[in-house]
Amino acid sequence: MDRDARIFVAGHRGLVGSAIVRALRAAGHTHLLLRTRDELDLRDPVATAAFFEKAKPDYVFLAAARVGGILANQREPADFIRDNLQIQTNVIHEAWRTGVQRLLFLGSSCIYPRLAPQPLREEYLLTGPLEATNRAYALAKIAGIEMCWAHNRQHGTRFLAAMPTNLYGPEDNFDLDSSHVIPALLRKFHEARVADAPSVSIWGSGEPRREFMHSFDMAQACLFLMNLDDERFDGLLGSDEALTGRFEPPLINIGVGADISIRELAETIAEVVGYDGLIEHDRSKPDGTPRKLMDVSRLNALGFRARIELKDGLRHVHEVVFTSSQADPA
Ligand SMILES: NC(=O)C1=CN([C@@H]2O[C@H](COP(=O)(O)OP(=O)(O)OC[C@H]3O[C@@H](n4cnc5c(N)ncnc54)[C@H](OP(=O)(O)O)[C@@H]3O)[C@@H](O)[C@H]2O)C=CC1
Ligand SMILES: C[C@H]1O[C@H](OP(=O)(O)OP(=O)(O)OC[C@H]2O[C@@H](n3cnc4c(=O)[nH]c(N)nc43)[C@H](O)[C@@H]2O)[C@@H](O)[C@@H](O)C1=O
User: Fold this and answer.
1) Would the ipTM clear 0.95, i.e. be above it?
2) Which of 17, 77, 164, 208 would bridge 12 by S-S if both were Cys, CB 3.0 to 4.6 A apart?
3) First to last CA, the chain
Protein backbone atom coordinates (compact mmCIF):
# COMPACT_ATOMS: atom_id res chain seq x y z
CA MET A 1 0.00 0.00 0.00
CA ASP A 2 1.49 3.36 -1.02
CA ARG A 3 1.77 5.93 1.77
CA ASP A 4 -0.77 8.19 0.05
CA ALA A 5 -3.26 5.40 -0.75
CA ARG A 6 -6.84 6.00 0.34
CA ILE A 7 -7.49 3.46 3.11
CA PHE A 8 -10.90 2.85 4.68
CA VAL A 9 -10.68 1.30 8.14
CA ALA A 10 -14.26 0.26 8.87
CA GLY A 11 -14.71 0.04 12.65
CA HIS A 12 -11.74 2.31 13.43
CA ARG A 13 -12.75 2.95 17.07
CA GLY A 14 -13.01 -0.73 17.96
CA LEU A 15 -10.42 -3.07 19.48
CA VAL A 16 -8.97 -4.15 16.12
CA GLY A 17 -9.76 -1.08 14.00
CA SER A 18 -8.05 1.29 16.43
CA ALA A 19 -4.92 -0.89 16.46
CA ILE A 20 -4.93 -0.97 12.63
CA VAL A 21 -5.17 2.83 12.54
CA ARG A 22 -2.20 3.14 14.93
CA ALA A 23 -0.17 0.72 12.81
CA LEU A 24 -1.05 2.54 9.57
CA ARG A 25 -0.14 5.92 11.05
CA ALA A 26 3.13 4.51 12.40
CA ALA A 27 3.90 3.25 8.87
CA GLY A 28 3.38 6.76 7.47
CA HIS A 29 -0.06 6.41 5.89
CA THR A 30 -1.75 9.77 5.76
CA HIS A 31 -4.96 9.26 3.81
CA LEU A 32 -7.10 7.28 6.23
CA LEU A 33 -10.88 7.25 5.71
CA LEU A 34 -12.58 6.91 9.09
CA ARG A 35 -16.28 7.07 9.98
CA THR A 36 -18.03 6.30 13.26
CA ARG A 37 -21.23 4.26 13.23
CA ASP A 38 -23.20 7.48 13.85
CA GLU A 39 -21.60 9.12 10.80
CA LEU A 40 -22.00 6.06 8.55
CA ASP A 41 -24.15 3.09 9.53
CA LEU A 42 -22.75 0.33 7.34
CA ARG A 43 -26.01 -1.62 7.65
CA ASP A 44 -27.53 1.05 5.41
CA PRO A 45 -26.90 0.16 1.73
CA VAL A 46 -27.72 3.64 0.42
CA ALA A 47 -25.43 5.45 2.86
CA THR A 48 -22.66 2.89 2.28
CA ALA A 49 -22.93 3.29 -1.51
CA ALA A 50 -22.80 7.08 -1.22
CA PHE A 51 -19.71 6.89 1.00
CA PHE A 52 -17.79 4.57 -1.35
CA GLU A 53 -18.69 6.65 -4.43
CA LYS A 54 -17.45 9.83 -2.79
CA ALA A 55 -14.47 8.57 -0.75
CA LYS A 56 -13.22 6.07 -3.39
CA PRO A 57 -11.02 3.94 -1.12
CA ASP A 58 -8.09 2.03 -2.65
CA TYR A 59 -7.92 -0.41 0.28
CA VAL A 60 -10.47 -1.57 2.85
CA PHE A 61 -9.90 -3.15 6.27
CA LEU A 62 -13.34 -4.50 7.23
CA ALA A 63 -13.15 -4.48 11.05
CA ALA A 64 -16.69 -3.15 11.63
CA ALA A 65 -19.00 -5.80 13.03
CA ARG A 66 -21.35 -6.63 15.87
CA VAL A 67 -18.96 -8.33 18.27
CA GLY A 68 -19.37 -9.78 21.75
CA GLY A 69 -18.47 -12.53 24.16
CA ILE A 70 -20.11 -15.89 24.65
CA LEU A 71 -23.18 -14.60 26.55
CA ALA A 72 -23.96 -11.72 24.17
CA ASN A 73 -23.74 -14.11 21.23
CA GLN A 74 -26.00 -16.61 22.96
CA ARG A 75 -28.61 -14.03 24.02
CA GLU A 76 -28.81 -11.92 20.83
CA PRO A 77 -28.29 -14.28 17.88
CA ALA A 78 -30.75 -12.37 15.67
CA ASP A 79 -28.81 -9.12 16.13
CA PHE A 80 -25.49 -10.84 15.50
CA ILE A 81 -26.51 -12.53 12.26
CA ARG A 82 -28.48 -9.55 10.89
CA ASP A 83 -25.96 -6.76 11.61
CA ASN A 84 -22.99 -8.75 10.40
CA LEU A 85 -24.67 -9.94 7.20
CA GLN A 86 -25.79 -6.38 6.44
CA ILE A 87 -22.45 -4.68 7.18
CA GLN A 88 -20.32 -7.13 5.22
CA THR A 89 -22.76 -7.42 2.30
CA ASN A 90 -22.84 -3.65 1.83
CA VAL A 91 -19.10 -3.12 2.23
CA ILE A 92 -18.01 -6.03 0.03
CA HIS A 93 -20.51 -5.13 -2.69
CA GLU A 94 -19.49 -1.46 -2.74
CA ALA A 95 -15.80 -2.34 -2.63
CA TRP A 96 -16.28 -4.33 -5.84
CA ARG A 97 -18.56 -1.72 -7.46
CA THR A 98 -16.16 1.16 -6.83
CA GLY A 99 -12.97 -0.71 -7.77
CA VAL A 100 -11.23 -1.21 -4.41
CA GLN A 101 -7.80 -2.79 -5.05
CA ARG A 102 -7.66 -5.04 -1.98
CA LEU A 103 -10.06 -5.77 0.88
CA LEU A 104 -9.36 -7.62 4.12
CA PHE A 105 -12.49 -9.08 5.73
CA LEU A 106 -12.17 -10.09 9.38
CA GLY A 107 -13.95 -13.26 10.39
CA SER A 108 -13.33 -15.34 13.50
CA SER A 109 -12.02 -18.74 14.60
CA CYS A 110 -15.61 -19.71 15.50
CA ILE A 111 -16.28 -20.39 11.78
CA TYR A 112 -14.66 -23.80 12.24
CA PRO A 113 -16.69 -26.83 13.38
CA ARG A 114 -17.08 -27.15 17.15
CA LEU A 115 -15.25 -30.46 17.30
CA ALA A 116 -12.80 -29.96 14.43
CA PRO A 117 -9.35 -31.54 14.87
CA GLN A 118 -6.83 -29.25 16.56
CA PRO A 119 -5.02 -27.14 15.55
CA LEU A 120 -7.65 -25.63 13.25
CA ARG A 121 -6.52 -25.63 9.64
CA GLU A 122 -8.12 -23.43 6.99
CA GLU A 123 -9.33 -26.52 5.11
CA TYR A 124 -11.64 -27.50 8.03
CA LEU A 125 -14.14 -24.80 7.00
CA LEU A 126 -17.61 -26.33 6.42
CA THR A 127 -16.62 -29.83 7.53
CA GLY A 128 -18.96 -30.19 10.54
CA PRO A 129 -21.56 -28.70 12.93
CA LEU A 130 -20.85 -25.33 14.57
CA GLU A 131 -20.77 -24.35 18.26
CA ALA A 132 -24.31 -23.49 19.38
CA THR A 133 -23.48 -20.38 21.46
CA ASN A 134 -22.24 -18.43 18.42
CA ARG A 135 -23.68 -20.23 15.38
CA ALA A 136 -25.56 -17.14 14.13
CA TYR A 137 -22.41 -14.99 14.25
CA ALA A 138 -20.28 -17.77 12.75
CA LEU A 139 -22.69 -18.30 9.86
CA ALA A 140 -22.61 -14.58 9.04
CA LYS A 141 -18.79 -14.76 9.00
CA ILE A 142 -18.87 -17.86 6.77
CA ALA A 143 -21.18 -15.96 4.40
CA GLY A 144 -18.59 -13.15 4.39
CA ILE A 145 -15.86 -15.57 3.33
CA GLU A 146 -18.07 -16.89 0.56
CA MET A 147 -18.88 -13.32 -0.55
CA CYS A 148 -15.17 -12.52 -0.87
CA TRP A 149 -14.61 -15.78 -2.76
CA ALA A 150 -17.64 -15.29 -5.03
CA HIS A 151 -16.54 -11.76 -5.94
CA ASN A 152 -13.00 -12.97 -6.64
CA ARG A 153 -14.39 -15.72 -8.92
CA GLN A 154 -17.03 -13.66 -10.70
CA HIS A 155 -15.42 -10.23 -10.81
CA GLY A 156 -11.69 -10.86 -10.39
CA THR A 157 -11.53 -8.84 -7.16
CA ARG A 158 -8.77 -9.26 -4.57
CA PHE A 159 -10.73 -9.81 -1.37
CA LEU A 160 -9.11 -11.84 1.39
CA ALA A 161 -10.75 -13.21 4.56
CA ALA A 162 -8.58 -13.37 7.69
CA MET A 163 -9.72 -15.49 10.64
CA PRO A 164 -8.32 -14.13 13.91
CA THR A 165 -8.14 -16.12 17.10
CA ASN A 166 -9.60 -14.55 20.31
CA LEU A 167 -8.22 -11.01 20.66
CA TYR A 168 -7.60 -8.56 23.50
CA GLY A 169 -6.14 -5.09 23.87
CA PRO A 170 -6.60 -1.60 25.29
CA GLU A 171 -9.75 -0.58 23.36
CA ASP A 172 -11.66 -3.72 24.35
CA ASN A 173 -15.22 -3.85 25.67
CA PHE A 174 -15.00 -4.15 29.48
CA ASP A 175 -18.74 -4.59 30.11
CA LEU A 176 -19.12 -7.72 32.24
CA ASP A 177 -22.20 -9.06 30.44
CA SER A 178 -21.23 -8.54 26.81
CA SER A 179 -17.41 -8.71 26.79
CA HIS A 180 -14.99 -11.50 25.98
CA VAL A 181 -13.19 -13.36 28.72
CA ILE A 182 -9.94 -11.33 29.01
CA PRO A 183 -11.47 -7.88 29.52
CA ALA A 184 -14.06 -9.41 31.88
CA LEU A 185 -11.45 -11.14 34.02
CA LEU A 186 -9.06 -8.16 34.07
CA ARG A 187 -11.88 -6.04 35.39
CA LYS A 188 -13.23 -8.63 37.84
CA PHE A 189 -9.80 -9.34 39.35
CA HIS A 190 -8.80 -5.67 39.43
CA GLU A 191 -12.02 -4.68 41.22
CA ALA A 192 -11.70 -7.63 43.61
CA ARG A 193 -8.16 -6.56 44.53
CA VAL A 194 -9.25 -2.96 45.13
CA ALA A 195 -12.24 -4.09 47.22
CA ASP A 196 -10.18 -6.80 49.00
CA ALA A 197 -12.91 -9.30 48.00
CA PRO A 198 -12.43 -12.92 49.20
CA SER A 199 -13.22 -14.54 45.82
CA VAL A 200 -13.78 -13.94 42.10
CA SER A 201 -16.36 -15.90 40.10
CA ILE A 202 -15.46 -16.99 36.59
CA TRP A 203 -17.94 -18.46 34.10
CA GLY A 204 -18.16 -22.16 33.29
CA SER A 205 -15.89 -25.04 34.27
CA GLY A 206 -12.59 -23.30 33.46
CA GLU A 207 -11.70 -26.29 31.27
CA PRO A 208 -12.20 -24.83 27.76
CA ARG A 209 -8.99 -23.81 26.05
CA ARG A 210 -8.52 -20.59 24.08
CA GLU A 211 -5.73 -18.92 22.14
CA PHE A 212 -5.24 -15.17 22.66
CA MET A 213 -3.56 -12.50 20.55
CA HIS A 214 -2.88 -8.86 21.45
CA SER A 215 -4.52 -6.32 19.12
CA PHE A 216 -1.05 -4.86 18.37
CA ASP A 217 0.04 -8.18 16.81
CA MET A 218 -3.33 -8.54 15.10
CA ALA A 219 -2.91 -5.13 13.43
CA GLN A 220 0.64 -5.98 12.38
CA ALA A 221 -0.66 -9.19 10.78
CA CYS A 222 -3.39 -7.27 8.91
CA LEU A 223 -0.89 -4.75 7.48
CA PHE A 224 1.52 -7.56 6.65
CA LEU A 225 -1.16 -9.32 4.59
CA MET A 226 -2.34 -6.18 2.80
CA ASN A 227 1.29 -5.31 1.93
CA LEU A 228 2.16 -8.70 0.42
CA ASP A 229 3.43 -8.55 -3.14
CA ASP A 230 0.86 -9.45 -5.84
CA GLU A 231 2.11 -12.99 -6.33
CA ARG A 232 1.86 -13.95 -2.66
CA PHE A 233 -1.38 -12.02 -2.05
CA ASP A 234 -3.06 -13.54 -5.09
CA GLY A 235 -1.90 -16.97 -3.91
CA LEU A 236 -4.24 -16.56 -0.93
CA LEU A 237 -7.32 -15.55 -2.90
CA GLY A 238 -8.71 -19.04 -3.45
CA SER A 239 -9.39 -21.02 -6.56
CA ASP A 240 -12.57 -21.88 -8.41
CA GLU A 241 -13.43 -25.35 -7.14
CA ALA A 242 -15.57 -26.06 -10.20
CA LEU A 243 -12.45 -25.63 -12.34
CA THR A 244 -9.70 -27.00 -10.09
CA GLY A 245 -11.61 -29.61 -8.06
CA ARG A 246 -9.95 -28.19 -4.93
CA PHE A 247 -11.75 -26.50 -1.99
CA GLU A 248 -9.57 -23.39 -1.56
CA PRO A 249 -11.43 -20.41 -0.09
CA PRO A 250 -9.59 -17.06 0.21
CA LEU A 251 -8.88 -17.75 3.86
CA ILE A 252 -5.97 -17.31 6.27
CA ASN A 253 -5.78 -17.89 10.02
CA ILE A 254 -4.26 -15.24 12.31
CA GLY A 255 -3.07 -16.34 15.72
CA VAL A 256 -0.14 -17.17 17.95
CA GLY A 257 -0.29 -20.97 17.72
CA ALA A 258 -0.56 -21.68 21.48
CA ASP A 259 -3.52 -21.93 23.86
CA ILE A 260 -4.27 -22.15 27.59
CA SER A 261 -7.25 -23.24 29.69
CA ILE A 262 -9.63 -20.59 31.07
CA ARG A 263 -8.63 -21.67 34.58
CA GLU A 264 -4.96 -21.05 33.76
CA LEU A 265 -5.90 -17.72 32.18
CA ALA A 266 -7.74 -16.70 35.36
CA GLU A 267 -4.73 -17.64 37.50
CA THR A 268 -2.40 -15.67 35.21
CA ILE A 269 -4.67 -12.60 35.32
CA ALA A 270 -4.91 -12.85 39.13
CA GLU A 271 -1.11 -12.81 39.27
CA VAL A 272 -0.78 -9.90 36.80
CA VAL A 273 -3.33 -7.86 38.75
CA GLY A 274 -1.90 -8.84 42.14
CA TYR A 275 -5.00 -10.62 43.46
CA ASP A 276 -4.50 -13.58 45.83
CA GLY A 277 -8.06 -14.54 46.82
CA LEU A 278 -10.08 -17.58 45.69
CA ILE A 279 -11.29 -18.37 42.16
CA GLU A 280 -14.82 -19.81 42.00
CA HIS A 281 -16.79 -21.23 39.06
CA ASP A 282 -20.28 -20.11 37.99
CA ARG A 283 -21.37 -23.28 36.23
CA SER A 284 -24.71 -21.77 35.20
CA LYS A 285 -22.76 -19.96 32.45
CA PRO A 286 -21.78 -21.70 29.20
CA ASP A 287 -18.35 -23.14 28.42
CA GLY A 288 -18.73 -22.81 24.66
CA THR A 289 -16.34 -24.57 22.29
CA PRO A 290 -14.00 -26.92 24.18
CA ARG A 291 -10.92 -25.80 22.23
CA LYS A 292 -10.01 -23.33 19.46
CA LEU A 293 -6.31 -23.54 18.68
CA MET A 294 -5.36 -22.03 15.33
CA ASP A 295 -2.96 -23.62 12.87
CA VAL A 296 -0.99 -20.55 11.79
CA SER A 297 1.51 -22.34 9.56
CA ARG A 298 0.21 -20.60 6.42
CA LEU A 299 0.74 -17.15 7.99
CA ASN A 300 4.11 -18.15 9.47
CA ALA A 301 5.29 -19.53 6.12
CA LEU A 302 4.67 -16.11 4.57
CA GLY A 303 7.02 -14.63 7.18
CA PHE A 304 4.74 -13.29 9.93
CA ARG A 305 4.98 -14.18 13.63
CA ALA A 306 3.21 -12.63 16.62
CA ARG A 307 5.59 -10.97 19.11
CA ILE A 308 3.68 -10.35 22.33
CA GLU A 309 3.64 -13.07 25.00
CA LEU A 310 0.28 -13.43 26.73
CA LYS A 311 1.51 -12.39 30.19
CA ASP A 312 3.25 -9.27 28.79
CA GLY A 313 0.14 -8.38 26.80
CA LEU A 314 -2.09 -8.79 29.87
CA ARG A 315 0.28 -6.58 31.91
CA HIS A 316 0.15 -3.95 29.16
CA VAL A 317 -3.66 -3.86 28.98
CA HIS A 318 -3.95 -3.81 32.77
CA GLU A 319 -1.54 -0.86 32.96
CA VAL A 320 -3.13 1.11 30.14
CA VAL A 321 -6.75 0.55 31.14
CA PHE A 322 -6.56 0.40 34.93
CA THR A 323 -3.55 2.58 35.77
CA SER A 324 -3.65 5.07 32.82
CA SER A 325 -0.10 4.30 31.63
CA GLN A 326 0.42 4.60 27.87
CA ALA A 327 3.08 1.90 27.58
CA ASP A 328 3.73 0.41 24.14
CA PRO A 329 3.16 -3.38 24.24
CA ALA A 330 6.02 -4.09 21.84
N1 LIG B 1 -12.54 -9.22 19.64
C2 LIG B 1 -12.22 -10.48 19.33
O3 LIG B 1 -11.81 -11.28 20.18
C4 LIG B 1 -12.34 -10.94 17.91
C5 LIG B 1 -12.79 -10.12 16.88
N6 LIG B 1 -12.87 -10.61 15.60
C7 LIG B 1 -13.34 -9.79 14.49
O8 LIG B 1 -12.53 -8.63 14.35
C9 LIG B 1 -13.34 -7.54 13.89
C10 LIG B 1 -13.20 -6.37 14.85
O11 LIG B 1 -13.66 -6.76 16.14
P12 LIG B 1 -13.45 -5.83 17.43
O13 LIG B 1 -12.50 -4.75 17.10
O14 LIG B 1 -13.19 -6.74 18.55
O15 LIG B 1 -14.90 -5.20 17.61
P16 LIG B 1 -15.36 -3.91 18.44
O17 LIG B 1 -16.70 -4.21 18.98
O18 LIG B 1 -14.28 -3.48 19.37
O19 LIG B 1 -15.48 -2.79 17.32
C20 LIG B 1 -16.45 -2.90 16.34
C21 LIG B 1 -16.40 -1.67 15.48
O22 LIG B 1 -17.41 -1.83 14.47
C23 LIG B 1 -18.12 -0.63 14.35
N24 LIG B 1 -19.50 -0.92 13.96
C25 LIG B 1 -20.36 -1.79 14.54
N26 LIG B 1 -21.55 -1.74 13.92
C27 LIG B 1 -21.43 -0.81 12.93
C28 LIG B 1 -22.33 -0.30 11.97
N29 LIG B 1 -23.58 -0.74 11.89
N30 LIG B 1 -21.88 0.65 11.12
C31 LIG B 1 -20.61 1.11 11.20
N32 LIG B 1 -19.71 0.66 12.09
C33 LIG B 1 -20.13 -0.28 12.96
C34 LIG B 1 -18.08 0.06 15.71
O35 LIG B 1 -18.21 1.45 15.47
P36 LIG B 1 -18.39 2.56 16.62
O37 LIG B 1 -17.11 2.59 17.39
O38 LIG B 1 -18.61 3.85 15.91
O39 LIG B 1 -19.54 2.12 17.45
C40 LIG B 1 -16.70 -0.37 16.21
O41 LIG B 1 -15.73 0.58 15.84
C42 LIG B 1 -14.78 -8.06 13.79
O43 LIG B 1 -15.02 -8.46 12.47
C44 LIG B 1 -14.76 -9.28 14.69
O45 LIG B 1 -15.72 -10.22 14.26
C46 LIG B 1 -12.51 -11.89 15.32
C47 LIG B 1 -12.06 -12.73 16.28
C48 LIG B 1 -11.94 -12.33 17.65
C1 LIG C 1 -13.86 -14.53 19.76
C2 LIG C 1 -15.02 -15.44 20.02
O3 LIG C 1 -15.68 -15.09 21.23
C4 LIG C 1 -16.85 -15.83 21.56
O5 LIG C 1 -16.53 -17.13 21.91
P6 LIG C 1 -15.70 -17.54 23.18
O7 LIG C 1 -14.30 -17.80 22.80
O8 LIG C 1 -16.39 -18.69 23.83
O9 LIG C 1 -15.78 -16.20 24.06
P10 LIG C 1 -15.53 -15.61 25.48
O11 LIG C 1 -14.25 -14.87 25.45
O12 LIG C 1 -16.73 -14.83 25.89
O13 LIG C 1 -15.41 -16.86 26.50
C14 LIG C 1 -14.32 -17.73 26.49
C15 LIG C 1 -14.41 -18.71 27.64
O16 LIG C 1 -14.17 -17.98 28.85
C17 LIG C 1 -15.15 -18.34 29.81
N18 LIG C 1 -15.30 -17.26 30.81
C19 LIG C 1 -14.98 -17.36 32.12
N20 LIG C 1 -15.29 -16.24 32.78
C21 LIG C 1 -15.79 -15.38 31.83
C22 LIG C 1 -16.29 -14.06 31.93
O23 LIG C 1 -16.34 -13.45 33.00
N24 LIG C 1 -16.70 -13.49 30.76
C25 LIG C 1 -16.64 -14.15 29.55
N26 LIG C 1 -17.07 -13.51 28.43
N27 LIG C 1 -16.21 -15.43 29.46
C28 LIG C 1 -15.78 -16.03 30.59
C29 LIG C 1 -16.39 -18.61 28.97
O30 LIG C 1 -17.35 -19.35 29.70
C31 LIG C 1 -15.77 -19.38 27.80
O32 LIG C 1 -15.58 -20.71 28.16
C33 LIG C 1 -17.79 -16.02 20.40
O34 LIG C 1 -19.10 -15.94 20.87
C35 LIG C 1 -17.41 -15.24 19.23
O36 LIG C 1 -17.60 -13.88 19.47
C37 LIG C 1 -15.99 -15.43 18.90
O38 LIG C 1 -15.62 -15.58 17.75
Assistant:
1) yes
2) 17
3) 23
